[in-house]
Amino acid sequence: MNAVESVPEHQIDTPRLMGELASYAVTHFADEEAYMRSIGYPAELLQKHLAHHAAFLKRLDKLDGAATYLILDYIQEWLLLHIMNEDRQIGVFERSRSSNG
Predict the structure, then answer these.
(1) In angstroms, rounded to a whole number, what is the distance separating the alpha carbons of residues 71 and 64?
(2) What is the pTM (predicted TM-score) of this model?
(3) Helix axes 14-38, 68-81, angle to 10 degrees
(4) 10-residue stretch averages of pLDDT, the chain, 101 residues long
(5) Are 1 and 69 in contact (CB under 8 A)?
(6) DSSP per-residue string spanning 6-37
(7) By the 8 A CB rule, do 1 and 72 touch?
(8) What distance, in Å, lies between the first and last C-alpha atoms of the chain?
(9) What span, in angstroms and rounded, lies between the C-alpha atoms of 66 and 53?
(10) Is the backbone of residue 13 left (phi > 0), alpha (psi -120 to 50) or beta?
């Protein structure tokens, strides 16, 4: 994020970056969701996690055309909260599964 923040906004190709981010997110989410299924992640938690992913992509779409700083603020906040809360639960589940069997 810092590299983008240091470039004047008029020099940032925001639509291209948003497209690349959305494409990467779709791939990353699919990989993460496949992993969650492979470890037997509980269905209700998986569905909640998938809903978070879908909401992120929907919000990205709505931010198309917004000021770059608003986009960066949203992405930064979402990533921090998602990783610290939702993704962390995957690790907790994996560790408990490994220690139990």
Answers:
(1) 8
(2) 0.82
(3) 10
(4) 56 84 96 97 96 95 87 93 94 88 61
(5) no
(6) TS-GGG--HHHHHHHHHHHHHHHHHHHHHHHH
(7) yes
(8) 40
(9) 20
(10) beta
